[in-house]
C-alpha cells in the first residue's frame, strides 16, 4: 500500500451505498480517508494502525452529499446506522441546520493511532455503550462525557500523554467498568460524585499515580483492583464505602504507607495486599466474616515478624503468604485457619523448617512452597500424615528442599510418599 488509497475508493461519492462494514488496517502511509459519512447502511468502521493519520477531519463526513439529499430537513444525520467505530474528528456545523453525528454509535475503539492528540465526544453520541482507547501515546485529552448516560465500559490503555480522566465521567450513570492501564502521565484519579452503576474499577501500572480518591459511596462496586503503581501514596475511601465490594486487590504499590479501613467492607470475599513494602501493620481484618481468599505480603523489609492479622476462619479456604529476608518463621495465627484447602508460602528465605502446627490444617488439599531458598525441612512425619486430604504438594525454586524431597532417596521423601501428586521444580 502506498501513501494513498486506490482512486476508486476516493471517488465522490463512493459507490458503495449498501456497505455495512469497513475495515482499514495496516495502511501506515495513508494520511487521508475516503468520504464515508453519507453511506446509509454503514454500521461498523475499524481504522487500525494508520501511523500517518493525524486526524479524521470534516472531509470524511460527506456533509455536502448528505446536505443535498436532506436540504428540507431540520436535522442532518451523518453515519446514520453506525454502531462501531475507531477514530474521528468533529463534524461541520451550520447556522440553520442541526448536525448529528453517529446517533446510533454503541462501540468506539481507537487502537494504535500514535499521532492523535484529542478525541471529541459529540453530544449526538448518546447511544455510546463502550469506549476503548489503546496505544495512543500523543493523546492528551478526551472530550466531555457529560451526555454519555448509556456508557457502560470505559477502557483506556497505554496512553502516556493523558494526564486526567475525561471530564464529566461522574455523569455516566450507567458506567459499570472503568479500566485504566499504563497511562504514565496520570497523577491523580478522583471522583467527586457517585457512580451508581460502577461494578469494577481497575487501575494498573500507572507509574506516576500518587493519589486514588474514592470519597463517595459507590453502591454497586464489587471489584477494586490497583496494581503496579509504585508512587501511589494513598487510597482514600469513604467511611461508609461500598456494601457490595467483594474483591479488593492492591499489588506492587511500594509507596503506599497505609491501607483503607476494612471495617465497612463486610461483603469482601477476596483480599490481596501483595508487594506493598511501605505497609507495617494490618488492622480491621477481623470484621471480614465472608472472606474466602486472602493474599498478604511482602511488607516493610525491616520487620522481623509478619504483621499480626486476625481473620474469621469459617469461610477462608485460600491463603497466600509472601515473606521477606528477615522472617525466620511463619505467622502463628495460620495454625487456627483450619478451613484452609489451599496454602501457598513464598519468599520466606529466612525459613529453614516448616512448623509442626501445619499438621493441624486438616482440610488442606494443596500446599505450594515457592522461592524459599534456605528451607530444608518439612514438619515431622506424624504431622504430615495428619494432612489426610492433601493430594498436591508443589515445591518450586526451593533448591535445598527439592533435593531432600527426591523420590525414594531424599531424607524428606518418607514424609510425603503418601501424597498422590508431588511436583518439584
Describe this structure in words.
The chain is mostly beta strands. Among the domains are: 105 residues, no CATH class; 109 residues, Leucine-rich repeat, LRR (right-handed beta-alpha superhelix) (Alpha-Beta Horseshoe). It is 5% helix and 24% strand. It contains 4 helices and 24 strands. Strands 4-6-8-10-11-13-15-17-18-19-20-21-22-23-24 form a 15-stranded parallel β-sheet. The protein has a 3-stranded parallel β-sheet with strand order 12-14-16, with no helix packed on it. A two-stranded parallel ribbon has the order 1-2. α2 links the parallel β22 and β23.
Outline:
This protein is mainly β and 425 residues long. 5% of the residues lie in helices and 24% in strands. Among the domains are: 1-105, no CATH class; 317-425, Ribonuclease Inhibitor (Leucine-rich repeat, LRR (right-handed beta-alpha superhelix), Alpha-Beta Horseshoe).
SSE topology sketch:
Elements: E1 21-25, E2 44-48, H1 63-69, E3 75-78, E4 84-85, E5 98-101, E6 107-111, E7 118-119, E8 130-134, E9 141-142, E10 153-157, E11 177-181, E12 188-190, E13 200-204, E14 211-214, E15 223-227, E16 234-237, E17 247-251, E18 270-274, E19 293-297, E20 318-322, E21 342-346, E22 366-370, H2 381-385, E23 392-396, H3 399-404, H4 413-416, E24 421-424
Parallel strand pairs: 1-2, 3-5, 4-6, 6-8, 7-9, 8-10, 10-11, 11-13, 12-14, 13-15, 14-16, 15-17, 17-18, 18-19, 19-20, 20-21, 21-22, 22-23, 23-24
